[in-house]
Design brief:
The chain is mostly helical and 439 residues long. Helices cover 69% and strands 3% of the residues.
Length: 439
């Protein structure tokens, strides 16, 4: 039977993930009556709520400080890189265009990162997946209800042109991205379930339907890419004599497919309802690169660029003739905030996280052991067309931190596990079993 403390912690983790998944916007608009524009951040109610979440997270980490210290020692490089990136956002206040904004956003990013670290030190991948599945299920049900019963049928104006189905998210890209993530989560849970497997499969189907209904082509492409990547992830567990030829053949076929798509780019984009500017993205990228040249090394300060008519982003609006709120690319977003220095640290974080995820995929034996690699691929690919940069109170960043920091060695149910230096040893459970046989 679960203790009261365990129930409280799980409830806190679930509610926080639910808020991060988009329920905060529903709460602000539906309960507090705050307009969608101001509900996106910066109002006192939301700031107070997030501040409370940061404090509770810190308290729970203190309760298990020995466990936290142990987990940190198992993955010191990754913790150091993420900590360095967060520290850099605060230091950027020294040269920021808006120092006050940078300090506030940096503190919020530190709290958000702290929650990701809490998930990594407290819950296994499977437990994280279950918490995430419940939160995304609620958002999916609310979106379905809003689409069916809402006054506008869930239709929302698309800033990129046309209309889309946004559900309670208010934007088709947000709905599509969240449900694409949900489909992957439910798929992995279905692959690991020992009973009631039909439940995650139902969730997977509902998520797929919402991706299609949203009209988000980017989310659909992410799911289509996931289908052939899953066998490649599983191949990492094979013997090298079988895995290497398979992976080489898969890479060659994938490269050929990419080249074929590039040759027929206009036809492919037209089929997806896009044009050669990728719905205006190449236009904003060009304008952003011009702005980066003004401050290439240190950037404009964390969170100080996209300030509407009050910030440097006003020049982007003048150059493009459209009001943008982000660079629609992760690397460009980090470059604007933290310059080339920040981009270097971020790429080191991402690269090291991928190396750990590949190690994890190789030495684990269940489907949830492939979650870090699955999510990091989703995160990186989504960042090509959308801004998935480190951001305060953002689920994408929390899941990145949790996937990168959750220790491989905590999963004692595996017959083989590895620490973060790649050393393989028998799990405690297997060692104990063998020792008892010897006696």
């Amino acid at each position: 039977m679960l203790s009261i403390q365990t129930l409280i912690e799980k409830g806190f983790a679930f509610l926080t993930i639910l808020l991060l998944a988009g329920f905060m916007g529903v709460l602000m608009v539906g309960v507090f009556g705050i307009s969608p524009d101001s509900a996106s951040g910066g109002n006192p109610v939301e700031q107070a709520l997030w501040s409370g979440i940061y404090l509770v997270t810190f308290f729970f980490l203190l309760l298990r400080y020995k466990r936290v210290l142990y987990v940190v020692t198992r993955n010191k490089i990754m913790w150091l890189l993420i900590g360095l990136l967060v520290a850099l956002t605060l230091i950027s206040a020294l040269w920021s265009h808006e120092p006050g904004t940078t300090v506030r956003n940096s503190i919020a990013l530190a709290g958000t990162t702290l929650f990701g670290g809490y998930l990594a030190t407290r819950y296994s991948w499977r437990e994280q997946l279950r918490l995430l599945a419940w939160a995304l299920s609620i958002m999916a049900v609310l979106s379905l209800l809003y689409i069916v019963l809402g006054p506008s049928g869930g239709v929302a104006d698309d800033p990129e042109g046309g209309v889309g189905i946004g559900g309670v998210f208010g934007h088709k890209q947000a709905l599509g991205k969240s449900m694409a993530l949900a489909a992957m989560v439910f798929f992995i849970l279905a692959a690991t379930a020992r009973s009631h497997r039909w439940l995650p499969w139902v969730g997977c189907v509902v998520a797929l339907v919402l991706v299609l209904v949203s009209g988000s082509k980017g989310a659909l492409v992410l799911l289509l890419i996931f289908v052939p990547l899953w066998p490649m992830y599983k191949a990492l567990r094979w013997r090298y004599t079988a895995a290497v030829p398979f992976l080489i053949a898969a890479v060659l076929l994938g490269s050929g497919a990419v080249i074929l798509l590039l040759i027929n780019a206009e036809t492919v984009l037209a089929a997806l309802g896009k044009n050669t500017t990728l719905t205006g993205r190449t236009v904003v990228w060009s304008a952003v690169l011009d702005m980066i040249q003004e401050r290439p090394w240190l950037g404009y300060g964390y969170g100080a660029f996209w300030r509407g008519v009050e910030g440097p982003s006003a020049l982007v609006s003048l150059m493009t003739g459209t009001d943008y709120s982000n660079a629609h690319n992760t690397i460009l977003s980090v470059w604007l905030d933290l310059g080339l220095l920040g981009v270097s640290v971020f790429l080191l974080c991402l690269s090291w996280a991928f190396l750990r995820a590949i190690t994890c995929a190789h030495y684990t034996r269940t489907a949830d052991g492939l979650w870090p690699l699955t999510y990091l691929t989703f995160y990186a690919l989504n960042g090509l067309m959308e801004a998935s940069a480190p951001e305060e109170n953002n689920l994408m960043w929390v899941l990145f931190v949790a996937a990168a920091l959750t220790p491989i060695t905590q999963h004692v149910r595996y017959s083989k596990i590895a620490n973060d230096n790649g050393f393989v040893r028998k799990s405690p459970a297997r060692i104990g079993k063998n020792a008892s046989r010897a006696r």
